[in-house]
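On clarity, I found the account of how folds are encoded harder to follow than it need be. What matters is that the chain and its backbone geometry are given together, residue for residue. For the editor and my fellow referees, an illustration may be useful. For illustration, here is how one protein appears when written out as sequence plus structure tokens:

___
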Amino acid sequence: MTSIVDDTTVDDETQPREHAYFEKADEFLEHLKTLIGVDLFSDEEATEEERNAIRRVQMICGEYHEQSYLWDPWLEQIVAPPIEALRQHAARVVESADKDPATVRANWLAEATYQIVNTRGSKIIVSFFPHQVSDLSVAIAYMQRLEPSGSRGAWAIRYIVLLWLSLICRLPFDLSNFDPEGGESGSTADTIEAIGLQYLDKAGLERDAAALLLARLYARQDTHTRFKNFLDQSEPHLVESPNLFRALGAMQVFTEILKSGGLDQLALHLPQILELAQKLPHNTSLSVHTVIRKYVIKVSGRVGLKLLPHTPTNRITIRTLHGETISPNEGFASSTESEAEIPDEIEGIIDDMLNGLRDRDTTIRWSAAKYIARIGSSVPNDLTSQLLDAILDIYQTHFVEGGELNTAAEPSWHGATLACAEFARQGLISGNNVPKTVNWVLKALFFDVKKGTHSIGSNVRDAACYFLWSLPRTLDPNAMRPYATRLAQSLITLALFDREVHIRRAASAAFQENVGRMGLFPHGIEVLKWIDFYGVGVRRNSFVVSAPEVARHEVYRGHLLNYLVDTTLKHWDPDMRSIGAEALKELCKADIYTLAPPVVERLKGSLAFVDSHEIHGAILGLREIAEGLREEQDGERSTKFRAQIFELLDRLTDSSIKGYKNDLLLEATSQLIGSSLSDIALNARPDLDVKSPPKWRFILDLCLKHRSDVVQDAELQTTNSSVQQGMTRVLGFAGSSKYPQGIRKAITCLIGVVKRDGAKKSSSYCVEARRNGYDSMTRLLRNIQPILFEELDHSLFQDILRSFLEGLEDYSVDERGDVGSWIRIACIKGLSGISQLILASQYGRKYEWISMDLYTQIWAGILKQGAERLDNVRAEVGKQIVQLLGLIESLPPADSVWIPEGFQLLKTLFMTEIEVGDGWNESNWLFPRIVQLLQVEAYREHLVRGIIISIGSRNESTNRPASTALTHYLLERQNTAPEERIIEKVLKILLDIAQNNSASNIVVLPILSTFNELIDGGLATEAASSPEGLELLCDLLNFVGVRVERLKNVQRINLSMRITVQLLAVTEVFETAKACLSSFLCHAFPKVREETGEFLYFVLQSQEVPGGDAIEPILLETDWAGPEYASSAQSVIKVLEN
């Protein structure tokens, strides 16, 4: 299932788009046609069209995985052609002994077929497979030709053919009719069984298909006697052997045959199957695996269903939306209580199911719940009631009335709730059992137990919603009537205020089901429009829009307020506490002078608690209520109420205010002071002591010194870094156009803060203080805009710009990661804002304040950041670039000098219809565009430096698009504008940077990664066609291949080796690369020698290298990590020399 990001703004931003129909049917069929239309026996290298076809088939299948039913009208067109092609391929392989059964193209076609099977399901897709009598011998012979562990990708062929064979096995003809003339009777069945057993212990999908094949074989009338022998053979694998895959295969056969086999065939074997399933948990080497325990539950449950009467003794009733009652069992002969005979084995099976409900894994609890409900529908009513009582007893294991649940209760409560839901869905909960069942499920509906820094229990709440969704479908409304209001209040609360989006939607669905089928919930129809699927999908909408509308109904208002105060404001997630406080304000605004006082009184008690979460939530709640009071028109009344809230600050203890990680608490407290402070609040305090500051001033003093943006100290004692952060932020407010005094001193001080030591690239100021310094300079210049040209001189102004440009090169790193990005983002905003401030002014001599050289550096520096690896940095660049371009476009003709180089290209690439900056954090959107700016010489070196960092990133979603875009663009530009020789220019920039920083691995490693990507993309061959490019390649080989033994960084050695080996395929530099190769084959590090041998073999396989065929055996036969590597290295070099 697709995960859903749940935040305070958008919960569904990663949810895939829903389709109305199979929109890509034509494209999908065209790609399948491409894969089918080739010669499946061809050994030629696959074309780009074929590679793209298999890639697109996989992507489209993934896109429709959640809505595969949309394929149904096209299924025959989709499935029949590839299966027919594979059938013909198999027939030709069988006819000719020299044909390869598993070529690359056949593998690809089978893999495409597997993707179709995986998307729509094997049960549906297999029905479109060919199943003629003549296909049996072809399928058997073809499977015999396939090796069990063939080439990479052959698993798909084996899987598809095994599925095909399992379908053919269902032909209603005796298999002995297919035995060869004069051969042993039953040889066909022996062969099919041998094929199935051959793949039954495999780790891949072949095991699933083999299990299905064997189950179909043993279910046949003419071969069912073989099942006894299979049971006997499986016993040691299940009871004694640690072989997981063989045990899984056997259990899969059991589940399939119990599902499709007839009782007359299996009756004699059921005790043995059950015995094996119940012995398996005692095999400790196997029982630790979830999938084994799941199959134990499935096998036990299916055996139980086979042992019980086929006609359910409990008549399931279903209520329609029109209130009618129907029975799916109508027309079947029902057994009376006296006639029903319960086998003795059922007691042990039920015990297994009850234990399964307590299992630690969800999938096992789910299986146990389904099977215990199905068993309950097949036993007499009194036993069904006993089963329900046993399930409800599970709740009591970890429950103490009035006490808190612990984390150990989560599995058992989830299992019990799932079982109750399945009982409800089967119509097995009678009116007498409704009270106790509903009471327990209502407790499960709010199961949320804190575990460490998070909480668990969302699965329990989800199962409880499932129960309340199932109950109205089978229960009589009169039995539900006494609990309708409680259920409605609980479901409304969960639908509006749960943290998880899937729980809110599950509760909404349960509420809707009850309203539609029962009609008992108060104001049901009117409330539904506020808590529908989309209404509760976005958390903010649910809390602050839907909740106040629902709270208009008094029956729900009190319950919602109580939940916010007692639960949400004490939640472990600070975002939940924050938005819960906002919801509290919105609910109280309906009648704030009546609803707010009791809420404030309850929050007042939480201020004295030790739990920082509870204190923080209480402060947030008080702050939001104070904000609500400020919005009231009754000024004096609301001010007095706010003064009462202000006095509650004195209840905060010093230990809580100055405690560890108090940033959130201080932030909320400072906001509470701002919301509740008034003249009345200050004057109504006769207890003020002039010797000590009041609590609110003490809090504000701590806030000023806190290291975060809102509150400036997180430590018990003030530290130097905290003061730096606070003071640099304060300096941003040190002047304005009305009060210009001290502006120059403030700016000079801030430049000193942000300036780093040129040699050490370090600063005595912390990174937060330097970031705040840049922000403060930007704020100061904005505040003094009307008098900027009078109060400052152009020399100081240019010093400011240079300090911002220097900040773009800040790549400070600490335990928090790339903290220098905070500074770079501040500098991007600052340079853009200051440039816009100057350009938009009416001052006549702007060029004195920003020289053209400095102006170009600003553009180049910002664009460099736009080509780097961090999404948030690139996104900020996108916003600022679009703002700058928009401003420049609106300048009068007299200011045309400020049009930057490449202006029209910048507009074409980035002034798109998408929202400002949105595409810049998407690598696949950005890099194909930004590399085109390499044609602008003024930006080229800066862009290359930025792209290097992206290609050297460990994040494949960044480095792969960057390298691909750079390679493609350079090759394309070389063809369209050969006179630019752009490849040589870019390579020279890369090599110069590497040579100038050869001692710094931080600089060199990304450059070597970039060289590798460019050479792999074919740029080396293109560069070697010119004298300048050839010289660059020789210089590159000298850089990476000389004095390799002195290098200590293994990653740098390996990257150098890859460049050297890849350049062997470039004829013009073959001799130089060959001379460098021995340094890697004979390196002192065994890992380097191994990597060199493997990569050289890979290059020889994919590219033309002189002597490659003779070198391959040497590479394969040599243990490069062992002591006898020198002679092999000499042999390789000797072959290359010849």
